Predict the structure of Alpha/beta hydrolase.
Amino acid sequence: MSSTTRRRVGIAGAVVGVASAGLAAAALAKRYAVGRIRLRPDLEAGEPFGELRGRPVTVATSDGVSLYAEVDGEEEAPLTVVLCHGYTLNLDSWHYQRRDLRDSYRLVLWDQRSHGRSPRATPEGSTIDRLGDDLAEVLDALVPGPCVLVGHSMGGMTIMALADRHPELFGDRIRGVALISTSAGKLAEISLGLPALLSKAVHKVTPGTVSILRRNGNLVDKGRQVGNDVAFLALRHLGFGDARNVSPTVVDFVESMIRSTPFEVIAEFYPALMAHDKLSALGVLDAVPTSIMVGDRDWLTPVEHSKAMAAALPRARFTEVPDSSHLVHLERPTVVNDALHDLLKRAETDGEVTGR
């Protein structure tokens, strides 16, 4: 081997060594950071996340999907609360709301198609309008009397799709609506907390990137399984407004729900979320008491989107929750639950006053 070759090999080896050392140092720093976070006092460490259960049932949809649902709470209560979860989550994401409401109300919680315990749907069936039809069929099967609908993120969009496709249900059957961290449309225009030019670039490349990754969904899912520390740190900073004080147990709980949602499902619903536009359907909700809630640091469904919905619904009560982000119902459950109790009282009173 010539001296030139030996020199090139030596340089290459040094580069690889430095790169490997850098990766090792980054991994060590990541583990150290996560370890320090987990060592802090955690008031939620003993909370039985994912363990609260109701009576399991299935709802067969008109296109052949057997949706998983649970009926919980006071079976004889005059009002049923129907909880519709968000994108990549499942019915367990309503842990704090279920715990708070189950002693006073009849609850129906359901896993949206392709999420949680509900089976996979076809890509063609992965639309917001189809979710609205699913909700109508859940109401037909599991809700015998008046109800209040509560939706987070994609669950709120599901309620808007129901209003668009089945407006006759709002009033006598549906007595109230809560829209939490959601949007009536134009998600493809949000800044994601980035400068304008960078945000446009991200929106431009994301659909193609998601489509490419979808073709290798199994490989992506394997990578998601081994990247828990990275996912933990990312979710802690992006999903919660007060990252310093959020419970590591809560972060782990949410991360496990997201990780259990196959990437193919995430990719199949992504175009539907970006195309969602139900601002014109909001007028239907003005017939019933409505509550709109959003975290002041929500970058996925920004405050401006909730304010736009509130402007279209002059009777709605708007709550901007400080120091919280997209997962406000898990980050600030007391504030959200108080607003829900207020909504439920208004729904009960409205029904009595109008003689419904």
User: Anything to note?
Assistant: The chain has a mean pLDDT of 83.
